[in-house]
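Q: I'm teaching a short session on how sequence maps to structure, and I want students to see two examples side by side rather than one. Could you give me a first protein with its sequence written out and its structure tokens following it? Keep the formatting plain so it prints cleanly on a handout.
A: Of course. Example one:
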Amino acid sequence: MAGTIKIIRKKDPKKADPLARQKLIWTVGHTMTLVFGALFTLTYFFHVLLFFKYRSWKWLFLRVKKNYSIIKGTRWYHTILRWSPQLLYRLSLIGVFTSGSVTMFQNWNGLNPTWYDLLSSSNFQAMLMALLWFLGGGKSFYKLLPFMILSYMHLLDKDNEFNTESKKKEDQLTMANVHLLHLVSYSEIFIVIALVLDTLLMKNGSSGIMLVIYLGIYWLRLNFSPYAQITLLRILSKFDKKIPPKHKNNWDTIKRFIYAKMKAHERRLQEVGRTA
């Protein structure tokens, strides 16, 4: 009986695994968001602690001395130190774009998503927020906080992120970090309040524009994010007893609207589960 000949094909070492490369870029992006965001937070709070140096007490610390700089000097390293918070802030946002782009590629590769598909995606919404903060609106740690929390969660489960059969583990991770997800939602609401105050106090010329754009993005969150819906519903419920009776009906209408969005999201998930 003739023996069979086995042909062994050696893998080309020069041919890189595209999935491994994507995972590396994704990991680097989330690491940038978390590390540079944490470093920026340190500089931010250091700057806040020295508020009495760059704010005028004659104006109850509401007026900023525009020409004041904590780091003085004209040498090259003084310039780098002065620009380091801005650089750290933007590098953290670049990390959001990097990891988010890989996620979008993984989700929509070979497909033709509609605008509805994109706008309903939490990843796309996060990238819209990051783009907004990258282009303007001032730099604050609470604007980076939602991205940092999400990056932390993703890095905790990075071994299963690119595994298509790890849906159960993904759900378990989500339930284990449900408090962090609600913290993300609370921070998004805090950003709305901060932008409203910046607009009323006329902190800068772009505050009102940023508020309008951010409210548009947050409206998407309320329509498609269950955590944003639940968190806002919790906050509204705390004020139930303080609402005057004549406005009670309008107040309940707002709550019913959010609750209806939650139910609509659950129905969409059920439909996706049946067609999967």
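Q: Perfect. Now a second example for contrast.
A: Example two:
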Amino acid sequence: MKILHIWNTAGVASVIAKYMDRILGTRSLVVHRRAFDRYGVTTYGELWDCGAKVFALRCLLLARKFDLVHVHSFDKLVPYLKLLYPSKPIVLHYHGTDIRGKWLQKQKYWSKADAILYSTSDLFDDDTPENAICMPNPVDTDLFHPLSESKRRPNSALAFNYHLDVNKVLSYTQKYELSLDILERDIPYKEMPKKLNEYEYYIDQTELPSLSKTALEALACGCKVITWKGKIIKELPLQNRPENVVEQIYNIYQKLNRGKIRWR
């Protein structure tokens, strides 16, 4: 099966494509605009140096060569894809701020997709379509894994200044007796494992009720994660292991290609 992934929100498309190709023998291509990949999350796929209109046109033309198109966040493209290729399965995948509180506003886009995925349960609300599926974020465990324990500082905590209530964070560090570093999110993606492995704890975003992708990556690196509830998680959930995520998505692909499901 040949799959085209359009856009690469938080690097999720790269993880899905890499592990699905490796484990299930698909042939995937991820395409993303270089201007929107500041941290280098496209570890599997291509970065294009072009503007928005050229990118969209290139994607529409390229889609003819693939059995299925998986669109990440770039929902405005979906109606055009279905107009050009009415029988080609189109999966639309939302990842966070692209859909949070916007289901009704974006109905004209997602209603054209053959399958709708969203990454975390907090994105669900009264306007979420019944056929939409919550698909956990996969973590690239090739990249994110424990390094030398000797370099991990005991009782240390890292937080990034993003969706963060500093007062809550300070209360967590006092509760668990931790030293704290709060950094800006300007670390290149491939350098994140090294940074996460310096700490015993990672304090996740406090203002959104879900585990961030960075928190999942921290768990994969062997950190303990303090969640938005102030609770500690010590292991990467099985549902976020890449082999489990790609198996679920592949099953959706197969059903779409066989015509067993059409959710529009």
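Q: What should students look for in example two?
A: Point them to this: Residues 242-257 form the longest helix (16 residues). Also worth mentioning: Helices lie at 12-24, 52-62, 78-84, 107-110, 166-176, 192-196, 213-220, 242-257.
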